[in-house]
Fold these 3 entries.
Entry 1:
Amino acid sequence: METLLRRYTELPYVVDYLRTEELALLNPATWDDRNDSFFIEEYARRSGAKSVYALCLADCAETYHHWRVFSHGSSGACIQFKRKEFLTAISKVEGLRSEAVSYKTINELRRVKPALNELPFLKRFAFQNEGEFRLFYTSETKEPPIQRIPVPRHCVDRIILSPWLPNVVADRVKETLKSIPGCSNVKMYRSTLVENEDWKNLANGGT
């Protein structure tokens, strides 16, 4: 189990979080994986929930897949949370569920029908490399399209900027983020996943 949880997102959401110390959970209806959102919609229908919200984190090390799919382009970013502190913070939110997603094949679900409370945390096996840890919240009344939950900044391990963001721009972005009140000591780096000088040096016998 990773000691960190990673929220791959975009810079506007990083700014929003750093200013408010709140994470924004959105309605899953617009998710690209319609199988996933259908299971959540079915859960809402059968449970009587009028509003549903979710937020996805990665419970695994940094991968190209996560950057490419969830945070592609120069505006991508990752909020890296300290797992223990993060889970302690969200445990104070009444009604919030936080669980690892289970990845199942069609045949597995045919053999063992999923219980109702499993539906929001089930995905097809083909998505298993996501290593997703999901936050899920429902309400029996119709509420605004965003549900915000408090997560103090001390839960942040670091902010990682996109590997496709030019270095000179990344430096300015870090300066801007650190100028947000209370953020001067937050660690911020640009990912070197797609271009790492230490890795390239090993090609010619470097150390």
Entry 2:
Amino acid sequence: MKYRSLGRCGLQVSEIALGGWLTYGGSVNDDTAKACLRAAVEQGINFIDLADVYAHGESERVVGQWLRDYQRSDLVISSKTFWPMSDNINDRGLSRKHIMESVEKTLKRLGTDYLDIYFCHRYDEHTPLEETVRAMSDLVQQGKVLYWGTSVWEADQIANAIDVADRFLGYRPQVEQPRYNMLDRHIEDSIIPTCARHGLGLVVWSPLAQGILTGKYNDGIPEKSRGAESNWLDQELTPENIERVRQLSAVAQELELTMAQLALAWILRRKEISSVITGATHPDQVVANVKASGVTLPEDVLQRIEEILAS
């Protein structure tokens, strides 16, 4: 496993991270989830990414149970807040009230007294940005959060948060968590340059485009697969993209990589990326994904990939 700095700060995170979205505490039973987490640590992963809204707190609960058997300081644990957690009108958003109450609930579910990273899980148009930045900065001051970050924020929103923090000598966000993969490259135009300019790391989610970039849809949509049962993939599970993935799969085979490993290595080609957040429903998937760490794709291969993606 290779490790990278979280932007310009001193924290080191594994190039491959393990996330709990759509899996732990939900579709994956607790024993399997814990087996995946054990495999992750055995393979050198030190970064576990969560959110309170994942399985409505159950993802944090499962990881908290597993965490009891490990040295807390060996791991980088992140969570997020923003989405509604109840019908209470104040149990949502990025108000000071919701942030302060949410972090306490997250810490209790995890059984720890601090988070390494705490993300604002979307931008809150209904709360003054200064209120949000001051609350997150206060959590850092209190030691309950070591670093704070943004998730799925626009470039100008990130820059504005930095300006607010600087004005009152608070703690800046240190990391952005956006969606990024071969089929969704929207962050390349402004978000990556903004983060690089201000020294923020990037930890990206959906690196395999909800499974499309594993190649499992190359020969059709299997019954009971995510593509068959969810409308989330409608915009990307197109004949054009399937053909692109078929061509990319041939490239991966030539390099003796799986399609997933090629997709992960392609993201890690950019030095601005600190870590890639992967999901896993079985320990074998963790082991396979980790093999993408340290893979260097030759320039001619990268050019060939660009041509395929542009076709």
Entry 3:
Amino acid sequence: MSQKIEELFQEGIRRYESGEAAKTLIPSFESICKGSPKAAAAWTCLSWLYLLEGQAEKALKAAQTAVKLDPVDAQPRVNLTLAMLELKKTGVRQQVEAIKQILARDPEQIEGVKSNLQEGGNRRPAWPHLSKIYNWLFEED
């Protein structure tokens, strides 16, 4: 990412962490992704924001881009899986297995994924697919 895009990205993260609504952050992250189309983290954030706003089709496309750019990061796959569940797409089980393999190889990602899922539950209460994926990833044997 260029320095300006990186600064915009960090500002967007700060705004999100301070509790700003996903709806108002989406245009900023769309701009960041347009300005730096190979920034996997920005695509991951954009897909998450779309999910929080119930825009599963847009979330699916953004998450697919993020996974393509960074296939060993668990969070974009979590976002992709959530979008797939919301859109009733096939392939969910394969994504869950891929996420489990990533987390087994890189346990440092576990807390981040758990934290993001919990944050999603706070920001979008009664999100049935969120609790479903959490259980699949962390409460099964």
